[in-house]
Specification:
Number of helices: 6
Distance between the termini: 59 Å
Order of helices and strands: HHHHEEEEHEHEE
Structural class: alpha+beta
Number of strands: 7
Length: 235
Amino acid sequence: MKIFILPFIMLAGINALNAQTTKPVPKPVTILKTNADSVSYVLGELVAYSLKEKGLGDVKISNSTAFMRGVTDILDKKNTLIDDIKANAILNKHYEKLKTEKAKPEIENGQIFLAQNKLKSGVKTTATGLQYEVIREGTGIKPTVVDTFVVHYRGTLMNGTEFDASYNRGQPLQMPVNKVIPGWIEGLQLMQAGSKFKFWIPYNLGYGTEGNGQKIPGGAMLIFEMELLDVKIKQ
């Protein structure tokens, strides 16, 4: 249960302020006139907390009548107006829209950067929009999508913020090629063992509009310096 206690010093400040005010302070309007009203309000809070936990805290209830109909249909065990499969599809589509809108500034900044970056000498752009520069060309084999790579790397955002680096851990990353983000899957297959490339990865070849944890926002364009140390061929 949440208990809110107004500190004494805050009460004193409020009383002093009221004493200096010549106009009468209007009484707050409340909808909680009965215990049943309070119960209803708390239940509404619980619904909101549940939405937040499911990542839908940014959803705006544009039609409160429809919202309450959905709640009461479930609580009263009535047939719902929308079946479960369609309901999931509607929410997923709306959730994707919210993520895209939130990520829009990052996406646009990345697109501007990539449009300018591809004009630089030495920068190549693939059909998917992946950009890369060869820092050092190796002489070993190229991995395929079924092989395992051994790579040292450093990843940064467009503003230069480093979000991850195997160099800091003193241990290269070893993983199947088909288990990483699309930009890496494509990029690794361009490299020969012993190579060092720099990659600029558009958001749709990275972590999309979802982002990754606290360090990589949705829609972020990613920059990686990668050294392909070894390729382990799948037998």
